[in-house]
Structure formats: structure tokens, C-alpha cells
Design brief:
Elements (H helix, E strand, L loop, with lengths): L5 E6 L2 E4 L5 E3 L2 E3 L3 H12 L4 E3 H8 L7 H14 L10 E4 L3 E4 L4 E5 L10 E4 L6 E4 L22 H35 L6 E4 L3 E2 L9 H13 L6 E2 L2 H4 L9 H8 L3 E10 L2 E10 L5 E10 L3 H15 L17 H15 L5 H15 L4 H13 L10 H18 L4 H13 L3 H14 L4 H13 L3 H14 L4 H13 L3 H14 L4 H13 L3 H10 L5 H14 L3 H13 L8 H10 L3 H9 L7 H8 L4 H4 L2 H12 L3
Helix pairs in contact: 1-3, 5-8, 9-10, 10-11, 11-12, 11-13, 12-13, 13-14, 14-15, 15-16, 16-17, 17-18, 17-19, 18-19, 19-20, 19-21, 20-21, 21-22, 21-23, 23-24
Length: 652
């Protein structure tokens, strides 16, 4: 018999052998690398005490520089080995911003033949007690052909008493084993029932090293992964527009996850060193900060696309999802200068306003100049050209805007017809060219390529609204808001559609959400005031219109005039109306809003004169004739039905 004592730690169904440095579950060895065993020993030996990340890294990798992600990966793999896949951290607890603590109930046991007088007894030393228990011997030698019977000496009570005590002990062990097995089955089912994250945000990766050449490399990595994960089965990934503002962030991932309202956050670092690129990535669950998956990569920069595919697939597998294999074959440029210009364009496109849209256009133009085969840059350039003539931007004439957009979309599609953004620009151009059937096909093609394309759903919703398909348009807007719930544009657009369907409470809710996301945005605040007017909440409406004074004085004056007239204060309303008519900015108010003003002031003849002059073509003005609740006061007049009938008969 081997006389060497066998020492081990026991927690739950596991035994961590101090003697052999093995982790056992029952009779099965749990496969762990030496570094994982070292990590587990450190945690178990300091059971109940917090070990900082620095302490763990200094102990595990002495005199060696490693990134924190290596420790995170070790902890994640250990949790997987210990079957920690649920919300409860049964063994290894994460202490946010500090480190980790082993919280399982640990008992240190010593097993061996013993010395003189021990008679092969097992000594159990509990970590919180000095009590010694006598149990059966663990056979460490090969079992003999005919094992000798176990004899336990109870001199005071005789052999029969010893037999029953032994039988009771065996029965107790069996009952405990059954209970442990039942608990393991229950826990496994509980862990398996943990739903994988359904709403995920991919944050711009932190750039490691020099910032001059790769300032926005982390944003580029996030954008590429968002594209791939957009086709994640059974989950929604926020678009780049919702996360780009975290490119240079100070908040930790848990706080950002709370801001975005997501179930999990994919975060990481990226570093380029010559022709090599090093990436670490980890998926962090928002509810408890637990890393669901982590990995490090060191690849050739030429294999960047394969690396991004690998990150997406590994992350998806870790949470029980699949990336659809029919993903768009979209490839970015490997020209560093073109890539940098594209990322700058993407940055300003996501911050687009009257000032930033020309900057985005300039950078996308630089990207296609550096690499004429950069299909995605051509598509985004086309979108900038399309937006340039739209209300709020107005940097190009309508004719020039669509001429350039048409050419850029055609170039992008000739290079790669699997780019959703290019099909969407083409759809806008076809709509402008009075080809609604072609535009509908192009919109549908864009969403077929990327079903989770939030901007595509939003613009398709406006297209359907222009076609007077209100129910279909509402579905698209709802989908856009679901895909991009932290976008003020998606929320305010949904609010507008709900207003058109006369769901005034719903409209108020989403306008308020848009304002919460971007307090200085004008359209949802104005629309919120109009919604209050429909509920005769005049004081609340006036308060919203007053808040518009600094951001859009014309819309503020327009709203206050409506509110005062509807509240019965016609003198104040007429005074405001006179100021509007004297202002050079009155040209920014459309014919429909002027008609509504005349209607609220009791001048219906002037209102109908303006509406009669509306052009016979698809436009938001004509759509408002059909659906806008603000025109309800005019709908009771027979002239209104005649007006709508004339426009319907004159459809293009």
C-alpha cells in the first residue's frame, strides 16, 4: 500500500487534488491546461478573499507582460469547466473593477494509510473547524484480485453495532450522492434555460498603440463585426450609429450596456503592428458583468476579413446562436489610406447634420480616390449625395444630388451587388425618377441582403407611407425602432407614424424617448407638442414649443400659434402669425402647415386655396392629406374629399 497522504480540496461535486494537481468530478478528470489549474488553485487557496486582477496576473505570469484579456479568458474557461453558465456565480464571483473571489464552500481533506495507530483512517480537516472525522480508507494501490473485507474496530459495541454503523454510513453516502446528482441535474437544466442575449451592442474596440495612423481602427472593427452579426440568428445587434459615440469613451462597459439597454456587450482591443493585427474580444453579460466568451487573436493583416468572420462565429457559438451562412460577401478595402478615410467618413455620417454631412462626403470621396474598387465607400458616398438635397442639409440642388447619388450607387453595385446600402440609395433614386415599382424592388433587395438594416427599414417605411400604405409603413418603422432602439431618428419616425394612425399616446411615448436620447433635436419636440394639442393639453404643448425657441425659432413660433389658436387665445395667435409672415424664414414652413394655421384661425377658404395648389405627385404633403390628424378640422368640409379625389386621380 502507498503510505503517502492524499490531499485535496472539495467543493460541490469537484475535488481539486493538491497532491496530483488534477480537477476531478466524480471519477472523471476535468481537462484543464496547467495555467487554468494554477488559476483555480490561487482562487481556491484564497477562498472567500478578493484577489485583484494585478495579484492574479503577477502570480500567474510573473515577469511577463500580458493583457488583462488573458486573465479574463482563463476565468471564463474555468467557469465553463465548473459548469457555471447561469446567472448565479456559484464558484467564481466577479468583483467589478477589482478582481475575483472564490465563493464555493471549500473543504480541505487529507486521505492516506496514516502512521502508527491510524489503521488506514481518513482524516477530514474542515476549513472552519478542528474536528476530525473517521471515514473509510481510499485504496491508492491497484485492487487485489480478492479484496480483503473492510474491518472497523468498535470494541465497546461489538461487531453487529459496527456493521449497522457502516451500513448507515454507506446509506448516507448514497443519499448524499443522489441529492448531489439531483441538484446537478436541476442546476444544469437551470443553466441551460438561461436565454442567450437577444439584444447585443458591439462597442468600438479600444485602439492599442500609436493613434496617428489607426485612430478609428477600433470603430472600423466594430462596424465590420456589426455587419456580420447583423445576420445573427435569433438576436438583434445595434447598428454602428448607436455605438459610434463610444469610440473615445470613459464609461465602463457595464454603464454603457445600461445606457443602451442591451443584454450583452461585445468589447475588445485592436492593435496593428506592421503586417500583423492583434485583437482581443469578450462578450460581457449586462446583468452581472460576466464574460460569456473571450478570445485573443494574432493574425496577418491580410487575413483581416477571415479574422472578423472567426470572431463573429466563435462569439455566436458561445451564446448558442448561428451566423447565417448566406452573409453578404462585402469586403472592405485593404488600402490603409482608403480604410482610414472611410472610417472618418463613417464617423461623420453617423453624426450627420448640416455641418457634418459635407465632412462625411469629403472623406468618402477620398476613400474612393485612394481605392476605386472600394464598393462600400461608393455606396456610402451615394447616400451622402442623396441626403445633400434633403430638408435639414440642403448642400446640393435636388437635380445634382440625385445625379451624383445615381452614379455612386451604380458604381458600387457594379463592384459588388451584395451591398444593402447601395441598393437602398438606388431605391431612393428610382423613387425620385417616378419608378415606384423599381424603388420597391430595390428597397426589398436591400432588406433581403441585410434583414437587420435599421436605416433600410426606416426609409422603406417612408416610401410606403408616400404610397399611402400606412399599415405597412408602420410595420417597417416599428422594425427600425426595434433594431435601433437608442436612435432618436428611429424613435421620432415611429412616433410620426403612430400619430398618423391616431395612436396619440404611442406617439407621445416615442417622441419623449427621442428627446431623452437627444434633447436638442427639434422634430420630435415639435411633434410632441402637436400630440399634446390633439389631447387638448395646451399648457404642455406650449411648454414644448417654448423649449424649441433656441434650436428652431420658426418651428417654435409655428407651434405656439397653433396652440394659442386652439386654446382660444386668437389675439395672441394672430400676433404670432403676423410675425411669421414678416419673417424671411417663413419659406421654411410648408403649404400644409400654413393651411393648418389658417384652419385654426378660422380661415378655411385660405386653407383650401393653399391645398388646391399642391402639385399632383407623390410627396409627404399629399400623404398628410390622407392621414394627418391636424387636418381633421378640414375633413368635415366637402371640399376636402374633392381635393383628395383629384390628387388620387392624378397619381403618377
Amino acid at each position: 500500500m502507498n503510505n503517502q497522504a492524499f490531499r485535496y480540496y472539495e467543493f460541490g461535486p469537484f475535488r481539486l487534488s493538491i497532491t496530483d494537481r488534477l480537477l476531478m468530478r466524480g471519477d472523471t478528470v476535468v481537462s484543464l491546461t496547467p495555467k487554468l489549474v494554477d488559476t483555480l488553485f490561487l482562487l481556491v487557496e484564497n477562498n472567500g478573499h478578493v484577489l485583484s486582477k494585478d495579484q492574479l496576473m503577477d502570480s500567474l505570469w510573473p515577469n511577463t507582460f500580458v493583457e488583462e484579456s488573458s486573465l479574463t479568458q482563463n476565468i471564463s474557461l474555468l467557469r465553463k469547466a465548473l459548469a457555471e453558465t447561469g446567472e448565479t456565480q456559484q464558484y467564481i464571483e466577479t468583483i467589478p473593477k477589482r478582481g475575483y473571489r472564490f465563493v464555493g464552500e471549500v473543504e480541505e481533506r487529507v486521505l492516506g494509510n496514516g502512521t502508527s495507530g491510524s489503521n488506514g483512517q481518513l482524516l477530514l480537516h474542515e476549513s472552519m473547524s478542528t474536528q476530525v472525522f473517521i471515514e473509510e480508507q481510499l485504496m491508492t494501490d491497484p485492487a487485489p484480485a480478492a479484496p480483503a473485507p473492510l474491518i472497523i474496530d468498535y470494541p465497546r459495541h461489538g461487531y453487529a453495532r459496527a456493521y449497522w454503523k457502516y451500513a448507515t454510513l454507506v446509506l448516507g453516502v448514497l443519499l448524499l450522492a443522489s441529492a448531489a446528482a439531483a441538484y446537478a441535474i436541476y442546476r444544469t437544466r437551470s443553466l441551460n434555460s438561461q436565454s442567450p442575449p437577444k439584444l447585443i451592442a458591439v462597442l468600438p474596440f479600444k485602439t492599442v498603440g500609436a493613434q496617428s495612423e489607426s485612430e478609428l481602427m477600433g470603430l472600423g472593427m466594430a462596424d465590420a463585426l456589426i455587419l456580420r452579426l447583423n445576420r445573427l440568428e435569433g438576436a438583434t445587434v445595434l447598428p454602428t450609429g448607436s455605438v459610434f459615440r463610444y469610440t473615445n469613451r470613459e464609461k465602463d462597459t457595464t454603464a454603457i450596456a445600461h445606457d443602451l439597454g442591451v443584454d450583452a456587450v461585445l468589447d475588445g482591443t485592436v492593435q496593428r503592428d506592421g503586417d500583423r493585427i492583434r485583437v482581443t474580444a469578450q462578450l460581457i453579460r449586462s446583468s452581472d458583468g460576466k464574460a460569456l466568451w473571450s478570445q485573443s487573436f494574432d493574425e496577418s493583416y491580410k487575413d483581416l476579413f477571415s479574422l472578423q468572420d472567426s470572431i463573429s462565429e466563435q462569439m455566436a457559438n458561445a451564446v448558442g446562436r448561428q451566423v447565417w451562412k448566406a452573409a453578404a460577401a462585402r469586403k472592405d478595402s485593404l488600402n490603409p489610406e482608403a480604410q482610414q478615410a472611410y472610417l472618418m467618413g463613417l464617423y461623420f455620417w453617423n453624426r450627420r447634420n448640416r455641418e457634418n454631412l459635407p465632412k462625411a462626403t469629403q472623406y468618402f470621396e477620398q476613400a474612393v480616390q485612394k481605392d476605386s474598387s472600394f464598393a462600400l465607400a461608393h455606396a456610402m458616398l451615394g447616400d451622402c449625395y442623396f441626403l445633400s438635397s434633403q430638408e435639414g442639409y440642403d448642400s446640393l440642388s435636388v437635380e445634382e444630388s440625385f445625379k451624383r447619388a445615381r452614379a455612386s450607387a451604380a458604381t458600387a453595385l457594379a463592384l459588388n451587388d451584395q451591398i444593402a446600402e447601395a441598393h437602398m440609395v438606388q431605391a431612393e433614386v428610382l423613387w425620385y425618377d417616378h419608378d415606384p415599382e423599381g424603388a420597391d424592388r430595390a428597397f426589398r433587395r436591400a432588406l433581403e441582403i441585410n434583414p437587420n438594416y435599421a436605416v433600410g427599414h426606416l426609409r422603406y417605411g417612408y416610401f410606403l407611407l408616400g404610397g399611402e400604405l400606412l399599415a405597412e409603413a408602420l410595420r417597417e418603422m416599428e422594425r427600425a425602432q426595434q433594431l435601433d432602439p437608442v436612435s432618436p431618428v428611429s424613435n421620432s419616425s415611429l412616433a410620426l407614424l403612430l400619430f398618423m394612425t391616431r395612436d396619440i399616446d404611442g406617439s407621445i411615448k416615442y417622441n419623449q424617448r427621442a428627446i431623452e436620447l437627444q434633447p436638442d433635436i427639434a422634430a420630435p419636440r415639435y411633434n410632441l407638442g402637436v400630440s399634446y394639442l390633439k389631447k387638448q393639453m395646451f399648457a404642455e404643448a406650449l411648454a414644448e414649443f417654448e423649449k424649441l425657441e433656441n434650436t428652431d425659432a420658426v418651428m417654435s413660433k409655428l407651434g405656439k400659434t397653433k396652440a394659442q389658436a386652439l386654446a382660444g387665445n386668437l389675439a395672441a395667435a394672430r400676433q404670432n402669425f403676423s410675425e411669421i409672415m414678416r419673417s424671411s424664414d417663413r419659406k421654411m414652413i410648408g403649404a400644409v402647415d400654413f393651411a393648418i394655421l389658417y384652419s385654426t384661425l378660422g380661415e378655411k377658404d385660405k386653407a383650401f386655396k393653399l391645398l388646391d395648389e399642391l402639385p399632383y405627385r407623390k410627396s409627404m404633403a399629399i400623404t398628410r392629406l390622407r392621414f394627418d390628424p391636424e387636418l381633421d378640422e378640414l375633413r368635415s368640409d366637402p371640399r376636402f374629399a374633392e381635393l383628395v379625389a383629384r390628387h388620387q386621380s392624378g397619381k403618377l
